[in-house]
Each structure stands twice: as structure tokens, then as C-alpha cells.
């Protein structure tokens, strides 16, 4: 079982420097065959004294390549030290956050949530083609209308149809009647195999799907299906704020999950995390990647090892209990804003375990939205605007917004 006990700065520094030490050193060793090296030394510091206290910056300068998938088979031996850190990070996310059995998952640090979602859909498309011998026209992506646009992108890239299910306007829950209609319509079009994407916090609402509704409906209709969880937004919050939830590897229907460390974890961009039960990653193997030691199972190809190190450093600095405290703080602030909006009679949506509050557009104007950087569901014709309670979004920062909303509400009442 991958441990998640807080480490001090010195230990983290030592582990990262030791890992870099195990990687190839382009200055000391005579490495002649790979198109990679340290970052350009005319532009970037190589031996500035502060670097010895800066493991992440040092990793950036060493520039290890994490091409391929390091939980599976062989990997490039030039970067074996930092690959091990990525392997630990994948184990930690799968086992400590998503309740996987020890060593039961593969995964890698992807460019972002988009790539991780595409990777899942790519694997399941190939799985259905390889195992059941079906063609693309029998396969359909199935998800709710609140799902991220990367599902449409995946449908386009992998040449698959996509069907979206209506959600209730107030609760954002999947409309089960409409789900049945969608399945019936897709079956009539010859679809027999479904790639379901269930959300653990949607981008706009922070709403969470019940994956078992999809599983029950598809089973009742005699369809084949695989379920991927898009936890790009919620993966580093919701499992902590609602630990009894069933969107994890304890649920037999769920075989893969997307997380995004560059959202709530405040890691550098380029830190999507893709996790999948062992035995499935192979369906995305590109055997032609013969010059890569261990071949390549990912969409991306070459990628920065410094990204995996950054996420690992953040999670190990907090430890499980530190992370729980952080998510509790965000949740408390969101609950505070929600309670204040209730008192003021301002309509909004919020999942009680989420740090997103999505306000109905009739309660504000573009001026207020612009002043506080609130994001609309639709830039042409907004129905909703969201507040995301991040680390920097303290109650002191929420108070002026609340005052402006109340004043707007008051004016609207006087005008009536
Ligand atoms: C942000 C987000 C994504 C896409 O993530 P990128 O990192 O921008 O590629 C996918 N799904 C959900 C729910 C998201 O919130």
C-alpha cells in the first residue's frame, strides 16, 4: 500500500535529489543516442547556489523525460530515478484517494484532464473493438449534459458518436427517464457498446453523478459498457469531503478515473492524472514505438518528469491529514457563502460536499460578474455564474461580492 504520511522539506529534498541522481547525467556520462539534454545552459541557471534548496527547479533544469507508462512493463532506463517518484504518485492517488487495492492500477501524469479523458475513451474504444470485434459505429459515448467539453472532443478525435443525458435544472441529477430514452434511441441506431463518463464534480456546477444509475439502466437494456469517472475537478476534494461516496475503485463498475492536479492541488499546468485498473492500459499500446524502451501506452509521448515531481512534492508536504484540513477549510468557506445566499434569497446550486457555488444569472449583472471574475456557463447568454472557493478565496474576499449581490437584489425588489 502506498503510504501517505507527511514528509518534511528536508526529506522531500533528499528524495528528489536522490531520484535525479539515479537518472542519466548528460554532463558526467557520455550519452550519445538520445535527442534530449538538460535545459539550455545559455538561458537557464545550471549551478546557481539556490538550486540546491529547490528540488522542483532542479528537476526542471535536468529535464527528465517521462515518455511512456511507468506502472507497466519496462521504461526508459535513463530516467529510472524520477520514474519511481511518478510510480509512487500514481499508487498514492489510486490507493489513498480512490480506494484501489494495492498495486491494482496503472496510470500516468497526462497533460491535463482533457488528455486523461481522451486516454480513457481511446482505451475503451479499442477494448470493445479488440474483445468484442465491434466497429466504431456500434460504440457510443454516454454522459450528462453537464459534462466537460472534452467528451465531445474525444468523440471527434476517435470518430465515435456521443449521446448526452438531460439533468434536472435544480438538482443537476441525471434525468433517469431521459437516460432510458437515449439508450432506446441509440440501440435503434445500432449502438450496443457504451463508454460512460460519470462526473465527480462538473466544471460548472460541482455536481456529482450516480454512476450506478448508468450501470443499472445499461444492464437492464442488455448493453455492454465501461464506466470512466471524470474527477478532473473533484478528485482532490470530493473523496475527502464525502469519504463514503462510491465513485472509486471499490465500485466494480468503475475502471478508470481522471484527476487534475493543476486545479485544486495548485500544481503546474501539465498535471492531469490518469488511473485505470490493470489489464486495460494495453489496449492503447503503440507497438510501433519501438525506439522507446518499454513502448508507449499514452496519447502524449514525451512529457516532463518535473510535473510528476511537483504533484508528489505537494501531496507529501501535506500528508493525508493536512490535505483533509485544506479541503475542510475550502468546504467551510463555501458553506458560509451558501448560508449567506440563502438568507439573502439568492438562488444558486451547490453540492453540499463541493467548493463550487453557481448562482442563477438573474441575481447579478455583467458588472458584478466582471468585477469578481465570475465565470458564466455561456459567454453569449449566461444562465449561471460560478464562484470557485480556492485557497485565495477567503471569506474576507467573499464579503464584498455578497454585499454587491444583496444591493443588486434590493434594487431588483424596488423596481418590481
Ligand atoms: C477542467 C476539467 C477538465 C479538463 O481539464 P484540462 O486540465 O483543462 O484539460 C475535464 N473535466 C472536468 C470536469 C474539468 O473540470
Automatic annotation (TrEMBL):
N6-(pyridoxal phosphate)lysine: modified positions: 263
Coiled coil residues, start to end: none
GO annotation terms (biological process): carboxylic acid metabolic process
Key words of the record: Decarboxylase, Lyase, Pyridoxal phosphate
GO molecular function: carboxy-lyase activity; pyridoxal phosphate binding
Pfam families in the cross-refs: Pyridoxal_deC
Cofactor: pyridoxal 5'-phosphate
This protein's record includes keyword Kinase: no
Family recorded in the similarity comment: Belongs to the group II decarboxylase family.
Protein name: L-histidine carboxy-lyase (Histamine-forming)
Species: Pontibacter lucknowensis
Higher taxonomy: Bacteria, Pseudomonadati, Bacteroidota, Cytophagia, Cytophagales
Amino acid at each position: 500500500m502506498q503510504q501517505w504520511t507527511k514528509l518534511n522539506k528536508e526529506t522531500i529534498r533528499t528524495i528528489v535529489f536522490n531520484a535525479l541522481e539515479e537518472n542519466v547525467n548528460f554532463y558526467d556520462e557520455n550519452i550519445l543516442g538520445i535527442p534530449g539534454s538538460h535545459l539550455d545552459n545559455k538561458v537557464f541557471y545550471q549551478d546557481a547556489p539556490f538550486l540546491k534548496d529547490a528540488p522542483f527547479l532542479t528537476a526542471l533544469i535536468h529535464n527528465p523525460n517521462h515518455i511512456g507508462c511507468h506502472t507497466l512493463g519496462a521504461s526508459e532506463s535513463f530516467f529510472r530515478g524520477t520514474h519511481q517518484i511518478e510510480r509512487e504518485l500514481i499508487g498514492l492517488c489510486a490507493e489513498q484517494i480512490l480506494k484501489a487495492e494495492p498495486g491494482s492500477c496503472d496510470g500516468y501524469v497526462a497533460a491535463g484532464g482533457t488528455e486523461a479523458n481522451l486516454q480513457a475513451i481511446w482505451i475503451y474504444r479499442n477494448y470493445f473493438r479488440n474483445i468484442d470485434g465491434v466497429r466504431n459505429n456500434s460504440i457510443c459515448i454516454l454522459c450528462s449534459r453537464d459534462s466537460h467539453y472534452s467528451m465531445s472532443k474525444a468523440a471527434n478525435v476517435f470518430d465515435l458518436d456521443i449521446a448526452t443525458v438531460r439533468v434536472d435544472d435544480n438538482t443537476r441529477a441525471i434525468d433517469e427517464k431521459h437516460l432510458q430514452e437515449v439508450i432506446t434511441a441509440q440501440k435503434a441506431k445500432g449502438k450496443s457498446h457504451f463508454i460512460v463518463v460519470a462526473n465527480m464534480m462538473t466544471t460548472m456546477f460541482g455536481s456529482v453523478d450516480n454512476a450506478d444509475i448508468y450501470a443499472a439502466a445499461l444492464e437492464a437494456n442488455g448493453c455492454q459498457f465501461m464506466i470512466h469517472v471524470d474527477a478532473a475537478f473533484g478528485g482532490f476534494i470530493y473523496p475527502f469531503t464525502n469519504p463514503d461516496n462510491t465513485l472509486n475503485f471499490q465500485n466494480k463498475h468503475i475502471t478508470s478515473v481522471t484527476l487534475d492536479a493543476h486545479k485544486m492541488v495548485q500544481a503546474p499546468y501539465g498535471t492531469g492524472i490518469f488511473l485505470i485498473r490493470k489489464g486495460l492500459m494495453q489496449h492503447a499500446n503503440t507497438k510501433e514505438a519501438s525506439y522507446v524502451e518499454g513502448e508507449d501506452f499514452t496519447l502524449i509521448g514525451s512529457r516532463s518528469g518535473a510535473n510528476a515531481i511537483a504533484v508528489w512534492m505537494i501531496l507529501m508536504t501535506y500528508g493525508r491529514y493536512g490535505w483533509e484540513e485544506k479541503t475542510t477549510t475550502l468546504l467551510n468557506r463555501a458553506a458560509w457563502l451558501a448560508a449567506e445566499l440563502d438568507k439573502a434569497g439568492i438562488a444558486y446550486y451547490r453540492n453540499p460536499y463541493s467548493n463550487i457555488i453557481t448562482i442563477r444569472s438573474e441575481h447579478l449583472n455583467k458588472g458584478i460578474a466582471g468585477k469578481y471574475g465570475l465565470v458564466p456557463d455561456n459567454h453569449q447568454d449566461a444562465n449561471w455564474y460560478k464562484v470557485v472557493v480556492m485557497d485565495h478565496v477567503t471569506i474576507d474576499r467573499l464579503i464584498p461580492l455578497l454585499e454587491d449581490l444583496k444591493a443588486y437584489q434590493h434594487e431588483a425588489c424596488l423596481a418590481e
